[in-house]
Write a structure and sequence with these properties.
This protein is mainly α and 502 residues long. The protein contains 27 helices and three strands. The chain has a three-stranded antiparallel β-sheet with strand order 1-3-2. α9 (142-161) runs antiparallel to α10 (165-178), α22 (384-399) runs parallel beside α24 and α24 (422-438) runs antiparallel to α25 (443-464). The longest helix is centred in the C-terminal third of the chain and has 22 residues, at 443-464. The termini are far apart.
């Protein structure tokens, strides 16, 4: 195949080599940038390869460049092409001398970056960074290395948002290799972001040991406690994913202690006091009155809300007597410092306390609805799976038929997958399966309707490489979809109201 390519005109060979560096598919604008010619000239050079069938157009707009004078054409259309076969691309890449391959990638990376507007950088980040990382050994200038670390940070965040955890880790880790310890003094925000991103991606890829090493590096810097919140949050999530709930709570205690918040071993005696403090702060206001609270902006309350919400599922499972106190703390923070997205989750959990301890079903329903309204008002998608799960599993049946929770379950499931909250996605699937059983669905219909949810969840958890302990819900779901009312009744503050099951 390489010999066949060498029969092409030299200019065509050169442009195909550059195209091979871009990938199996490439567009004319990008190829023109890296070949440093106009799109019309580049298309003309490609024509021989098209005639030979070595590359194929993906649409008919390539014809605009055949027999047309260079004009506004290149500003109107951007044809794309693909190699006939992977072996054609490999042969074209093979024609680049081995000692020039890295230099070629580096030149392509620099040209693409210089021709990419800032507003379009994130959209094109993978194409730019992958070339640069292929030539990382040639990057020696300190300022260029720092710039490349920042680009890898952008790529890592974009990969993580797409739930591509292993590629995300590679980008974050590459960024870390480009910087040194002195950057903690000169570029602290960049360093913290890289280490946080790598630690979270490591945990989400199933590598808890690597996560521990990365967060230890963060803690070793003696940073402001607020700057360590994300690292603590990652640790809590990682331990919870392995069903190490006691350790997760211990981490939360350590983190909260730095903010002078002390969580006792057992808080049963403090429950009444915590609820009374919330009632005093409300001072007669109803749930709907809290919807118009200002947005929380102060760093410390935001940090505390993050830590408290992160450990809340572990507390509910492993130390249930602490649950009311921690929920009450979150509600008090929201009333005092304003609403944040996490407030939606806090108000929803507070509704559980109103339903079970206070036995005020009307107030419970109002605070559950407040949680849903906060999600909508603040566009809090990362919190949506949590709030929707709590309201649908614990609150809906207080005032209406259980079947009304199904739409919330379905949305919590979909959004949970999109934002990567696999823990609450798993809880949602378990409760959804129980819900359709309890409302009296025909068992054959029930299996048909719930099987896609279970299959999707199992596939996502397997793909993400999170241990099966990522959610106790997943384990119990796979064993059997049992309504665990007996265990729930053992929790001192949770006496589910079952009168509206159907």
């Amino acid at each position: 195949m390489a010999l066949q390519l060498q029969k092409l005109p030299p200019q065509t060979q050169q442009v195909l080599q550059l195209a091979a560096c871009i990938g199996n598919c490439f567009d004319l604008t990008t190829l023109a940038i890296v070949s440093q010619h106009s799109p019309t000239d580049t298309a003309t050079v490609l024509w021989k390869a098209l005639q030979e069938g070595l590359i194929l157009p993906t649409s008919q707009i390539y014809k605009f460049f055949q027999g047309v004078e260079q004009s506004q054409t290149e500003e109107i259309v951007n044809p794309s092409y693909r190699f006939l076969h992977d072996r054609v691309q490999q042969a074209a890449y093979f024609l680049i001398p081995e000692d020039q391959k890295q230099a070629t990638h580096l030149e392509i990376a620099r040209l693409l970056l210089s021709n990419t507007p800032d507003a379009e950088l994130e959209a094109n980040i993978f194409g730019i960074v992958n070339h640069w990382n292929s030539a990382i050994a040639l990057v020696t200038d300190p300022s260029e290395k720092t710039n490349l670390a920042q680009l890898n940070l952008i790529a890592g965040r974009k990969a993580k948002a797409s739930i591509a955890h292993e590629p995300a880790f590679e980008y974050f880790n590459t960024g870390i290799t480009l910087v040194s310890g002195r950057h903690w003094q000169t570029q602290p925000e960049l360093m913290l972001a890289l280490y946080e991103g790598a630690a979270e991606a490591a945990y989400l890829s199933g590598n808890v040991a690597q996560m521990e090493q990365l967060v230890s590096e963060i803690f070793a810097q003696n940073l402001n406690p607020i700057d360590c919140v994300k690292a603590y949050d990652i640790q809590i999530q990682a331990y919870a994913s392995q069903s190490r709930f006691t350790e997760a709570i211990a981490i939360a205690r350590t983190a909260l202690k730095q903010f002078n918040i002390y969580i006792p071993e057992q808080a049963t005696a403090d429950i009444a006091q915590a609820l009374q403090e919330v009632a005093e702060l409300l001072n007669g206001r109803t749930a709907i009155d809290l919807l118009d609270l200002p947005v929380m902006t102060a760093a410390k309350p935001l940090a505390l809300m993050q830590l408290l919400s992160s450990v809340l599922p572990s507390v509910y499972i492993s130390a249930p007597s602490l649950f009311p106190v921690m929920v009450a703390n979150q509600v008090k923070l929201s009333i005092q410092a304003g609403n944040t997205g996490i407030s939606a989750y806090s108000y929803s959990c507070y509704a559980i306390l109103l339903s079970t301890i206070v036995e005020d079903l009307d107030a419970a329903d109002e605070f559950g609805q407040l949680g849903l309204q906060i999600v909508a008002k603040l566009n809090a998608r990362p919190i949506q799976p949590k709030a929707y799960f709590v309201v649908s599993a614990f609150i809906i049946h207080c005032k209406s038929h259980l079947c009304n929770s199904l739409p919330l379950y379905e949305e919590a499931f979909q959004v949970g997958l999109e934002v990567g909250d696999l823990e609450h996605t798993a809880y949602t699937v378990m409760q959804l399966c129980q819900c359709v059983y309890l409302i009296g669905k025909n068992l054959t219909t029930l299996v048909a309707e719930t099987e896609p949810y279970v299959a999707t969840l199992v596939l996502v958890l397997a793909t993400s490489k999170i241990p099966c302990g990522a959610s106790i819900a997943t384990n119990s779901l796979l064993e059997a979809s049992n309504f665990n009312a007996e265990r729930i009744q053992t929790i001192p503050f949770c006496k589910p109201n079952l009168k509206n099951l159907g």
